[in-house]
Structure formats: C-alpha cells, structure tokens
Amino acid sequence: MSDHATNAATETFVAHRNLLFTVAYEMLGSAADAEDVLQETWLRWVKVDVAQVRDQRAYLVRITTRQSLNRLRTMKRRKEAYVGPWLPEPLLTTPDVAQDVELAESVSMALMIVLETLSPTERAVFVLREAFDVSYDEIAAAVDKSPAAVRQIAHRARQHVDARRPRDVVSPTETRAALESFQRAFETGDLQGLLDVLAPEVVLVSDGGGVKQAALRPITGAEKVVRMFFGGLGKVEGTLTGEPTVVNGNPALLVRLDGEIDGVMAIRVENASITGLYYVRNPEKLTRVEAETPLTLR
C-alpha cells in the first residue's frame, strides 16, 4: 500500500474509531477486549483497497462486528470459568455522553447486563440496529445472515431486552439524586435512609472475579443488601469513601479504600428508587478506570 493510501486508510479509521470502539464494547462488555478488536480491525483495514470501498463506515463496522463475534465465542469460555457474577468492565464516560440519553442508555450497566443474556448473533444485531441504526442489509453482511433473518433476530432480541430493561429511561439528574441519597446514608450510617432509597426488590451484584472479596451470588431484597453494606463492608479495615463520577453514561461512585480505588458502584433507578446496585471490584476490570482517574492525596 502506498503512503497516500495508508494515510487515507488511517484518516478514515481514526474518524470512525470512537464508533467502532463503542460497537465492540457494547458487544463484548469489556473495554480491554474492545481495544484488541480495534487493533484486529485496523490490521485488516490496512490490507483493503480503500478506494474500492463504497461505504467505508459500513465496511469498518462489518470488520469490527465479525472480530467481536469471534472474540465473544472465546469470552464465553472465560465467563463459564469465572468466579462469581460477571459484570461488564466499567467505562468512564464524559458528561456529554450522559446528556445523550439514547447513547447513555445503550451503554448503561443495566442494559449491558441484559445484553449478556442474548446469543452472540442476537447481541450483534441488537447493538447495530438499536444503538447505531445500521440498516438490515448492512447487518446481514456483517453477521452472514439474510436481511429477512436479521429482521427476525432483531425482533426477537428487542422483545427479550424490552422485557428485562427498565420501562422508563431515567434522567441523569434523577439517577444522581438517588446516588447522592445512597452515598449520604451509607457514609453517615443512616440505616433508615438507606432503606428509603432502596427499592424493596433491589438486587446487588458484586464482581470480584475470585481476586477481591465479593458475594458469589446476587443479593436480593433491601434488608439483605443493607445488612451486607453495614455488616460486610463495615468490617473492612480502612476508610471507605465514594467519589461521584460518570460510568457508562450514568452517574456512579468511584469507591476508594484509604484513597486507593477499590471498585466502581453503578446503579439502576426506577421510580426514584434504586432497583439495582452493580459493584465491580475485580482489579483486572479497573485498570482503565485507574489510568483515567487522577490520584487523590491521602
């Protein structure tokens, strides 16, 4: 490939890089794996005669989708051997993402968990169609299915997701208010305050990956969750603090233990109450967060 062609390929790839990363991340739930997929996409892209590609964005999305599907099959084996619940890798996002309600909802921790219940092909079709409005013909080329089959898969995946995700999209302001109430009640030891902000059927999912202590199964019910916070976390040696941040397009807490990052707490809010708590403690899933978070003085 000539220098001119290489430069053109590079410019096109860079222009669509954020889109490609988001496609890969929504399909995989792992920023580290998404970065690997982008590297694989680039290696294939530079071998293409860019001048012969009619729709370069669609072509890049197709490569990224296929590489993500390949990696999903590998990740399936990793997840089967995973210790405890598996949560998506937290992704620090800028405030402008949070203001884009549709994008924020598409990468929210709650929706990412629902996407884990889809088959690889269903997940690819759902992400491309619902989050990025890719045409059925383009999706068909990416997943090696007919457009008619893709329409059926999209319909089935949408029904599956709609039955499991929150019925109403909650604004960042509402989520932030619930999160602040939760943080205030926990830091002050206000048992009733914590019960007031948690929905009776709240579910706590913690991901330690067998490296950090975490519940091996989801904890359901406000009273059980409160006992875990004031019992389990109350026995932790050191000072736990919560620092507001934006994760996966929504307000969240960066939890520190004596100033060091211990985990990320994301929440799901419905009707002004917290119905889901997602606490990622696995250090392997926090490397990106640590790299992008300023150090704090002790």
Architecture overview:
- This protein is α+β, with helices and mostly antiparallel strands and 298 residues long.
- It has 13 helices and 6 strands.
- A 6-stranded mixed sheet has the order 2-1-6-5-4-3.
- A hairpin with a 2-residue loop joins strand 5 and strand 6.
Topology:
Layout lengths: L2 H26 L2 H15 L10 H25 L14 H5 L1 H6 L2 H7 L4 H12 L4 H8 L3 H16 L9 H17 L2 H7 E10 L11 E2 L1 H11 L7 E8 L2 E8 L2 E11 L2 E8 L6 H6 L6
Parallel strand pairs: 1-6
Antiparallel strand pairs: 1-2, 3-4, 4-5, 5-6
Helix pairs in contact: 1-2, 1-3, 2-3, 3-8, 7-9, 8-9, 10-11
Keyword list:
298 residues; alpha+beta; six-stranded mixed β-sheet; 6 strands
Tell me briefly what this model is.
The protein is 54% helix and 16% strand.
Report Rg. Answer: 20 Å
CA-CA gap between termini = 53 Å
| H/I helix tally | 13
- Please state the oligomeric state of the protein chains shown: single chain
Looking across the biggest beta sheet, what order are the strands in?
Answer: 2-1-6-5-4-3
Quantity of strands, as a count? 6
Shape call: globular
- Which structural class fits the helix and strand makeup? alpha+beta
Please indicate the percent range of residues in DSSP E strands (runs of 2 or more): 15-25%
Q: Order of helices and strands, N to C? A: HHHHHHHHHHHEEHEEEEH
| Fraction of residues in H or I helices | 40-55%
Main sheet: strands, sense, barrel: 6 strands, mixed
List low-pLDDT spans. Answer: none
Average pLDDT number: 89
